[in-house]
Amino acid sequence: MTADLSQIVKAYDVRGVVPDQWDESLAVLFGAAFARVTGARAIVTGHDMRPSSPGLSRAFARGAAAQGVDVTEIGLCSTDQLYYASGALDLPGAMFTASHNPAQYNGIKMCRAGAAPVGQDTGLAEIRELVQSWVDSGGPAPADTEGTIAQRDTLEDYAAHLRSLVDLASIRPLKVVVDAGNGMGGHTVPTVFAGLPLTLVPMYFELDGTFPNHEANPLDPANIVDLQKRVREEGADLGIAFDGDADRCFVVDEHGDPVSPSAITALVASRELAKHGGKGVIIHNLITSWSVPEVVKENGGTPVRTRVGHSFIKAEMARSGAIFGGEHSAHYYFKDFWNADTGMLAALHVLAALGGQEGPLSALVAQYDRYAGSGEINSTVDDQTGRLAAIKAAYEGREGIELDELDGLTIAAADWWFNVRPSNTEPLLRLNAEAKDETTMAKVRDEALAIIRG
């Protein structure tokens, strides 16, 4: 097909509408390019439950095998299950998913051996160039000897590995509602949770890439309404929602109230520090709550602040030897999981923390949720650069105000801060604000929005 690769090759992955923007013929070329750029003799692939995923995944495998590469297909899996396979088998991997995007989308998340990320600066740009050259010229020459394509089931091994990283032996019985959103959590949760003292109330566990019940994006409040209601109806101890490829998890407490990903980051950080003798680096992006670095320091750790985005987090994890990292978007990264993100391991930590004491989740997380936050507020703007400059001009030089431009623009005072970041793909500015109380936060948020929206 003729394809505009600039529309589908993003900063961290390939993603677009099938078959309008890409199809199986293009997947063959991506498989061949992945084989060439990684230089691997063997790779592993997996896919989610979207209708187009099996065909795209197999086409990619054919393209790689034609270059002499042996392909291990693990079939239906979550993204973190593919990372597990890449780490445990020490092979480059490719996951076919469009995460929380609507049903007509699909994509490829690629990694090198040991789940090391492939992004624009680490191979994705080269892959795009190769695919484009083959689109223009008619495809790559095959290798002298074609590689093999074989199947392997890694679900039990993945589940056992996760359970080995968290002590769940002595937790009290818990009732947990899990909303899989018709995504891959419906495939992984029953195996990972098997044998634990849990009463599991499943919601939308049927694998269905058309997402008949709601979008599989739990960061949108509309998509956790059903979970919140069910937790209250069941008198459950907590609720957990996974996104489409089940690499992110979102938690609600026994009242059905959302627990912020920053509070989960702080809770898991405290547990990981305890596991590592009260020492270690913890990564957090610059729009997680002030609570996170405070809790890290209180527990003996060293907080390190980074830009938003998994490639920055993973790079900093590797550079600093960090034991854990968390993002506001509910991505959680673990040194014990090849520095890759796994929402399932974060969920097990929450279950272990809650089950290891007698109080409710709301009381447990209160110590990690110390400030009033706005959540992420998006504004469509004509001139991202101009609006950012206007914000900088409005605050620069004010007494007691600090500015930094690590990622967008962060303005901080003694009792509040806000960050404004441009979207890489849309004409949006994203605002996150936090303060010591709700009234101050609302004032800071509204003042920033007035400048952003002109």
Automatic annotation (TrEMBL):
Its cofactor is Mg(2+). One of its GO terms (biological process) is carbohydrate metabolic process. The keyword Isomerase applies. Keywords: Isomerase, Magnesium, Metal-binding, Phosphoprotein. InterPro entries: A-D-PHexomutase_a/b/a-I, A-D-PHexomutase_a/b/a-I/II/III, A-D-PHexomutase_a/b/a-II, A-D-PHexomutase_a/b/a-III, A-D-PHexomutase_C, A-D-PHexomutase_C_sf, Alpha-D-phosphohexomutase_SF. Residues 376-448 form the Alpha-D-phosphohexomutase C-terminal domain. One of its GO terms (molecular function) is intramolecular phosphotransferase activity. CDD domains: PMM_PGM. Residues 7-133, 156-256, 263-371 form the Alpha-D-phosphohexomutase alpha/beta/alpha domain. Pfam families: PGM_PMM_I, PGM_PMM_II, PGM_PMM_III, PGM_PMM_IV. SUPFAM superfamilies: Phosphoglucomutase, C-terminal domain, Phosphoglucomutase, first 3 domains. PANTHER family: PHOSPHOMANNOMUTASE (PTHR43771). Belongs to the phosphohexose mutase family. This is Phosphomannomutase/phosphoglucomutase. It comes from Streptomyces luteolifulvus.
